[in-house]
Amino acid sequence: MKKILIIEDEKSIAELERDYLEINGFQTEIVLTGDQGLQRALTHDFDLILLDVMLPNVDGFEICKKVRSVKDVPIILVTAKKEEIDKIRGLGLGADDYLVKPFSPNELVARVKAHLSRYERLMMRQKPESNEIYIRGLIIDNSSRRVFVNNQEVVFTTKEFDVLTFLASHPNQVFSKDHLFERIWGYDSAGDVSTVTVHIRKIREKIEHDPSNPDYIETVWGAGYRFKDN
Ligand code: CA
User: How remote is the CA of residue 13 from the centroid of ligand 1, in Å?
Assistant: First the structure.
């Protein structure tokens, strides 16, 4: 369940926000002062922060700036003054969005949902660093050794997975059949380079939309194979 931190000193508004969000399946936590809100935002993980601008002790601008300097979590600033939006923009606080009081429950929930899904997509794209290769609808998860084509899991044999992962980890480089055979199977193993051809054909049948006209693994005549990343 997505967790949202509500920093708002007007209790009735905070509770209204909480009710709207909880009805829509979110978990919430309310903090009524700026300093406690900042502390909470910095020390705990939330999926989104709904942040009032006018707060006692530390205001929303300050909180936004400080949280943004260390976290990417989506922040929606809530202001009672429409005029303040230009100021907020001008300050370059790194807020993702603004809501002007009074706002409708639907508007609040729609904005929250939009920013959560945008953030999720952003995180997905950054995932390759964490052992995942993501190229045009093809996802290779190295840690679980699973492959997904257009969000559908496709089953790979060990060697097919090794060949695909090796090529995809070195995009745009050409590798000869001999090189691939040596790299994946090793000199000592039974079989010969024709094994490579067979495996490439099987991989293409699994990942390519049209295996005879491949988008991912290209044949470079007389040289070998190349994984195209664009
Ligand atoms: Ca306030």
Answer: 9
